[in-house]
Amino acid sequence: MTQSPRFRYEGLTRWWKGNLHVHSTRSDGGKTPAELAVLYAGEGYDFIVLADHWVAGAPDDLPRPSPLAVLDGVELDGDDSTGANFHVVCIGCRGPFDRAMGLEAAMTEARRQGAVLVLAHPLWTGNSAEDALRHGFDGVEAWNNVAVWLNGKGSGAFHWDRMLDRSPSAIGPAVDDAHITIEHPLWNGGWIHVDASVPTPAVLLAAIRAGRFVSSRGPVIRFLAARGREVTVSCSPVRFIRLVGPSHHGRRLAALDGPSLTEGVFTVPDDWAHARIEIEDESGRRAWTNALFA
Ligand SMILES: [Zn+2]
Ligand SMILES: [Zn+2]
Question: 228: CA distance to ligand 2 center in Å?
Answer without folding.
Answer: 39
